[in-house]
Design brief:
The complex is a heterodimer. By secondary structure, chain A is an alpha/beta fold. Chain A is built from eleven helices and 15 strands. In chain B, helix 1 crosses helix 7 and helix 8 packs across helix 10. Chain B is globular and about 65 Å long. Classes of the chains: A alpha/beta, B alpha/beta.
């Protein structure tokens, strides 16, 4: 039986991957922060208690080595991160300690204790930052635009370096935005679907958001974790873009989410004064707040996943049009205490 | 009077930059690490200058950096402090990241949090090692990076966080992407200094052989004194930007050895290939005051694979067109001039070591 270790296993991707690997018969070890944050995800997926909780923190080198020595995993998936871009401007040092130096600790521990272990690093489309509007592929140059992105850039290249210099099987998955009903509540897609469900039920009046014009490539997290697993099953290690190839503004996601709840939204005004208004009642439902703007924003991110299709045989099925509806459906079910289909 | 703060003031570049800034009338503050071994040799001739002030500090200590910047309120910060040795970074990746990568951010963040973003200009010592496995030749400010060592990756973090603070907070924060720059003050563990130190000792018979890694590596070598002038110029512009600082000329490590050997009177011939390659004395030219202890046929250079890097950077060649155009900067010392200055300086050092040893002082450092 294969053994996998997932850091950040109670996050969105960690939870989906835990379930995926358990179904494949893996023994799954998971590390996450102390406490039970994110436990709800495992509960909703019906795998609570099935992942072996492992004491491992990316800030502490010695416990990483201890954990690896005991588990001797076949595969490691490193999802643990301070993963919120806006917070990274306020906490750049902590972000770097976890996202950058944490990966140095982890890779070095793998090299010393289990160099044959296959390693997956969760890289991100944020690495591309302001490199223009063309589709990004594995050879596109990077231009990170936040302390989060710079920390992830470090992790990306250190992973490449351990592959090239130390001969380790280490891969980067450069993931474009991937969402799901298990997405963290502070991320825009989830923040919107929660708000729309509450507005629909009369529990909330409006929701405040940041830059509506940000263009993103949104996929479904449940499908993306399969590609991560595929990356570690190849004859040789490499880096892959995971994306849908479609790009839409945040505004359109919001419109779709409201539509999925039966509310037709109209947009009025410009810039900070732009508002999303319920076309039927005239009530303002979406407002802009400067606090959600990044000091340096990323205008457009769209990926070209043709290498993942060619080499891994992976292709996303759920795209933008289905994603908002799928997330809204889950959100409304949650409010009605019904079982969520995940 | 302008005030500058230099991290890494005890290093090669710190020494030359301190001289430059003191000559320009700056008050210079330097951060040095407390260490059990004495590390002030490169600036000992400047210590005691009334406009030079030294402080204990460390790039891994946010509180310390913030306090020093709050007290000094510098007009310019030059971040030269780093774990700067590529090979060591493979053994100490975490410390290298903490010091070279996060250390840079701690400085930037301190300036931002102290409200000094309009006053304090920041120079970040970036490096040609960012290009690593080069994507084009020569390398300019627009060439994509491909770092090949934990050192290169940590320095890339520092490069981009500097760009990010410029773009996010409109800070005057600049990267100088410096290609190799050497001098008689270069640390002994760097290849150029290792070569010139060895040639002096070999000429006098105090070392048998020089053991090398990859001698095919091609580098763009300039003189540190020229390069610190570029650092200063970068911070005197109207607009913050990043600049490649290089000579635009490239030589192999092997060529460096040949020129260094010639300076101590030795002509080298190369025999064999790969790890079996040797450098053999072909001829010895008499030099005043030097009693050569080598003769034709002696093997004085060999390859030891332990000096190979796990991932090698084969070639680095900079395109300094932008710094010439915008900064009006160009290097004054040629490759030959650089190697000769270093070899001559290290021959003198070897002579004084030799004299001490002959007089029975056994405590002299040798390798």
């Amino acid at each position: 039986m294969k053994k996998a270790l997932i850091t950040g296993y109670r996050g969105q991707d960690g939870a989906y991957l835990s379930k995926f690997l358990l179904e494949k018969g893996y023994e799954v070890y998971g590390a996450d922060r102390a406490g039970d944050s994110g436990q709800w995800r495992l509960r909703e997926l019906g795998i609570e208690g099935r992942v072996k909780e492992t004491a491992l923190d990316l800030l502490e080198a010695s416990n990483i080595s201890n954990a690896l020595e005991q588990i001797q995993p076949d595969e490691i998936y490193n999802f643990a991160a301070q993963s919120f871009v806006l917070v990274s401007f306020a906490q750049p040092v902590l972000t770097a300690e976890i996202n950058a130096v944490g990966v140095a600790r982890l890779l070095e521990a793998v090299r010393r204790t289990c160099p044959k272990t296959r390693f997956f690093q969760a890289s991100t489309a944020e690495l591309f930052g302001s490199t223009g509007s063309a589709q990004k592929n594995e050879t596109t140059d990077f231009h990170p635009r936040s302390p989060y992105a710079v920390s992830k850039l470090y992790a990306h290249w250190l992973t490449v370096n351990y592959r090239q210099a130390q001969g380790m099987y280490a891969c980067n998955g450069i993931l474009f935005n991937h969402e799901s009903p298990l997405r963290g509540e502070e991320f825009i897609t989830r923040k919107i679907t929660i708000a729309v469900a509450r507005i629909k039920k009369g529990l909330q009046e409006t929701v405040a958001v940041g830059n509506l014009d940000a263009l993103r490539d949104w996929g479904y997290a449940k499908e993306y974790v399969e590609a991560m697993w595929l990356m570690l099953q190849q004859p040789s290690a490499d880096d892959y873009i995971l994306a849908t190839g479609e790009v839409h503004p945040v505004r359109d996601f919001i419109t779709k989410a409201f539509a999925a709840a039966g509310i037709r939204l109209e947009w009025q005004g410009k810039g900070l004064d732009e508002k999303g208004v319920d076309a039927a009642t005239g009530k303002v439902r979406v407002e802009i707040s400067k606090e959600f703007y990044r000091p340096a924003d990323v205008k457009e991110l769209v990926g070209d996943a043709s290498k993942a299709k060619r080499v891994l045989g992976w292709e996303p099925k759920i795209k933008f049009n289905d994603l908002a509806a799928l997330m809204m459906d889950a959100e409304l079910k949650r409010l009605e205490n019904k079982k969520v289909d995940l | 009077m302008k005030t500058a703060l230099i991290t890494g003031i005890t290093g090669q570049d710190g020494s030359y930059l301190t001289e430059l800034l003191l000559n320009k009338g700056y008050e210079v503050h330097g951060i040095r690490r407390r260490a059990a071994s004495f590390n002030m040799a490169r600036i000992s001739h400047l210590v005691g200058h009334k406009r030079l002030k030294l402080h204990y500090g460390d790039l891994t200590d946010s509180t310390n950096l913030t306090r020093l910047i709050a007290e000094i309120k510098p007009d310019e910060i030059y971040n030269l402090g780093a774990q700067s040795h590529v090979a060591v970074s493979f053994d100490e990746p975490e410390y290298t990241a903490d010091c070279d990568g996060l250390g840079t951010m701690r400085l930037l963040e301190a300036v931002r949090l102290l409200g000094l973003t309009r006053k304090t200009r920041i120079y970040q010592a970036s490096t040609s090692e960012l290009y690593g496995k080069v994507r084009e030749i020569p390398q300019s400010e627009t060439t994509p990076f491909h770092p090949r060592s934990p050192y290169g990756v940590a320095k890339m973090y520092a490069f981009w966080i500097t760009v990010n603070y410029r773009e996010s907070y409109d800070m005057f924060a600049c990267n100088g992407i410096l290609f190799n720059h050497e001098s008689p003050l270069r640390g002994d563990e760097f290849v150029t200094r290792k070569i010139t130190r060895a040639m002096g000792r070999i000429a006098l018979g105090d070392q048998k052989c020089l053991y090398m890694g990859n001698m095919n590596s091609l580098r763009d070598w300039g003189h540190a004194r020229d390069y610190v002038r570029a650092m200063w110029l970068i911070l005197q512009q109207k607009k913050a930007d990043d600049f490649v600082i290089a000579t635009g000329k490239q030589y192999s490590v092997r060529k460096f050895i040949e020129v260094a050997a010639a300076e101590v009177g030795i002509t080298i011939a190369w025999k064999g290939k790969g790890t079996a390659e040797t450098g053999v004395v072909k001829a010895v030219k008499a030099l005043p005051g030097v009693e050569h202890q080598v003769k034709p046929g002696d093997v004085i250079v060999r390859v030891d694979p332990k000096f190979y890097r796990p991932a090698e950077v084969e070639t680095l060649l900079g395109n300094p067109a932008k710094s010439k155009r915008v900064l009006g900067w160009k290097p004054e010392v040629t490759f030959e001039g650089l190697v000769k200055e270093m070899a001559a300086s290290d021959l003198k050092l070897a002579q004084s070591e030799h004299m001490l040893r002959k007089s029975g002082y056994s405590g002299v450092k040798s390798c």
